[in-house]
């Protein structure tokens, strides 16, 4: 069941970019925020004091790391709610819980007691936030993810187990198949070059504007809200 739009939805539009590690979320966020003069909200990876330890010892640090991401993503949602116009977010709070934390729980890296605490907090947050007007899901094969992770060279990511990436990929596909909180646009990010290919850039823009007709135009002006079926 879809949540109703917020009362200020005629003035504000919220786009979120979802996808696995290395799928191209930050690159797409940079492109869209520059194109539409939108306010970008990035994944707080560099702020997470547990992340490096987590990649070294998942079982010891999984709960702390995921709780940090969840609480900080809630803060980002609250900040975005106060920004007029178009805002674009790198990774949603839904992914934190329903992909990453769920994967760790199923891998027995988060025990039942901690999981119950985490999930209860997540359900409370869901009742306090509005979902995105448009969710862009970047689908990307695991082999491409691994190549991109290696190329971008983040030290803490280099030893991510292949089995972990595959588990995340399966959870992502199941989640997006059942997501019903708003419009969804699925992009095959291994086939699209929205960094430098002008044709691909135009294609992405047109597909977004068909699903989000009241978003600001590329000249920065906002058109009248179009009726939606």
Question: What does the model show?
Answer:
The chain has 229 residues and is an alpha/beta fold. It is built from 8 helices and 5 strands, in the order βαβααβααβααβα. It has one domain: P-loop containing nucleotide triphosphate hydrolases (Rossmann fold). A 5-stranded parallel sheet has the order 2-3-1-4-5, sandwiched between helices. It is globular and about 45 Å long. The chain has helices at residues 25-36, 51-56, 58-81, 93-106, 112-126, 142-152, 162-178, 198-211, and strands at 12-19, 39-41, 85-90, 134-139, 183-188. The model is unreliable at 1-10 and 219-229 (pLDDT under 50).
Which properties best describe this structure?
alpha/beta; disordered C terminus; single chain; Rossmann fold; 8 helices; 229 residues; five-stranded parallel beta sheet; 49% helix
